Amino acid sequence: MYGMSGPYLIRGSVPLPEAELMWRFSRSSGPGGQHVNTSDSQVELRFDLARTEALPEVWKERALERLAGRLTGGVITVRASEHRSQWRNRETAAVRLAALLAEATAPPPRPRRPTRVPRGINERRLREKKQRSETKRGRSARDWG
Q1: pLDDT tens-digit profile of 36-95?
Q2: Which of 8, 45, 108, 113 could lock onto 93 through a cystine, CB 3.0 to 4.6 A?
Q3: CB contact at 8 A, 77 and 46
Q4: Which residues contact 17 (CB under 8 A, 6 or more apart)?
């Protein structure tokens, strides 16, 4: 690939496999001058997640599960058209794909261990509650003659 600024790392030392990336270019929508009608600056980057050999098997399964809603036949697609130059859109798309895969392959968070409420705190709460009810009961007007 010409001029791409180095391999995009997904996580750790695992790079985005350049050979498995499929690029497609088309004309961006939106305003522009005469040049915009001839330049294909919108970038569509496709990556076959189901068939890739570049990712560890565990990551691949995790990503396929988490990105199930975004996949079309095991292929993930990322579009970029916010820049006027195709090269910058390519950069944006590659960075976006790497970030998406990084998030999808991250290990699940460790399960939360529930903590118990200390007995002293519970007792204090009940004591204060009782005190409050005594205060309010003392305000009732029945005893007044």
Answers
A1: 666 778 888 888 888 888 888 888 888 888 888 888 888 888 888 888 788 888 888 988
A2: 45
A3: yes
A4: 52, 54
Compute the Cα dihedral for 54, 56, 59, 64 and give only its sign.
positive
Q: State the chain's mean pLDDT as an integer.
A: 82
34 Rama class: left (phi>0) / alpha (psi -120 to 50) / beta: alpha
Kindly report the CA angle at 68 between 107 and 110, in degrees rounded to 5?
20
DSSP label of 51: T
Q: d(Cα 55, Cα 119) in Å, to the nearest integer?
A: 49
Task: Give the pLDDT score at 2.
Answer: 46
Q: How far apart are CA 75 and CA 64, in angstroms?
A: 10
In the predicted model, what is the mean pLDDT of residues 12-22? 78
* pTM summary value: 0.64
* Pairing of β 21-26 and β 14-15: unpaired
DSSP assignment of 20-62: GEEEEEEPPPS---GGGGT---EEEEEEETTT-SSS-HHHHHH
